[in-house]
Amino acid sequence: MSIFFAYIGWFFMPILCIVFCLNLVSIIKKIFNEEPTVRNTFLLTLSFTLIMWSIAIISSIGDA
Fold it and tell me: How far apart, in Å, are the Cα atoms of 10 and each of 37, 47, 50, 61?
């Protein structure tokens, strides 16, 4: 399981960060225009969770 998050952290972290930033900007625009934000909120939460778990797992691998 830790190899999975290490792989995500190494290869997909830039993509996850771009997804996170684009969804954050989209949510801010939609809130300003009072539009629904369910899909963007889900993607923002998913990308943030994967980023944080990848950082945590990679740092714990370094201690072993």
Answer: 29, 15, 12, 13
Query: Is there a contact between 36 and 2 (Cβ–Cβ < 8 Å)?
Result: no
pTM of the model: 0.77
**Taking the domains of the chain in order of start, what are their residue ranges?**
2-63
Cα angle, residue 9 at apex, residues 3 and 15 outer, rounded to 5°: 135
Which tens digit of pLDDT belongs to each residue from 23-45?
999 999 999 999 999 999 999 99
Q: How far is CA 4 from CA 1, 45, 55, in A?
A: 5, 19, 12
